[in-house]
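Try it yourself: sequence plus FNR, in.
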Amino acid sequence: SQYQIAVIVGSLRSDSLNRKLATAMAAMAPPDFTFTQSEIGDLPLYNQDDDAHQCAAVKRLKSEIAHSQGVLFVTPEYNRSIPGVLKNAIDHASRPYGQSAWAGKPVGVLGVSIGAIGTALAQQHLRNILANLDVPTMGQPEAFIHAIEGFFDADGKVNPGSEKFIQTWMDSYVAWVKKHTT
Ligand code: FNR
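Structure, out:
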């Protein structure tokens, strides 16, 4: 399709709610958009000594971002910030200096939590990081999703009321990506 979106999920857990949300969202995309999840669980811990010879997993992540028209972060909140695995992936793809994969990529940020504030603080931390990376991050609408019982049905589909809200978010994100794609 015309618009490729690299989806980065901030949780490695097999039953991750955020991965479920990312998967459900891919199915809600318009026909000219394809959402593909990027693997970050096999990246080594970032070490600046490796900048001159980045490993295959890092090159793969950077290439997936480079070949995308936008990036979608779907992340849990860990201790009022983003998970370390997500920061690790962001750091990897930002290097070597001057060869960041992130610059200019239109980004959307959202997350789901069993906690009432629905990843709000993690998302604010992520926005700080993305500002430094010269990324245009969509400001509104925000999506702080509180996953109560029944948020996902047995097939992983979002309940109809929440689906409507997420579809509205998706429509704005699609417009955001198009606006930043020349
Ligand atoms: C959490 N959780 C959590 N939730 C929250 O709303 N704010 C927080 O600061 C934290 N902190 C936190 C730290 C750590 C180390 C863990 C493992 C969990 C709970 C978290 O939202 C919940 O486990 C989600 O289900 C994690 O997302 P995934 O893995 O389901 O996508």
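One thing you can check immediately is this: Residues 160-179 form the longest helix (20 residues).
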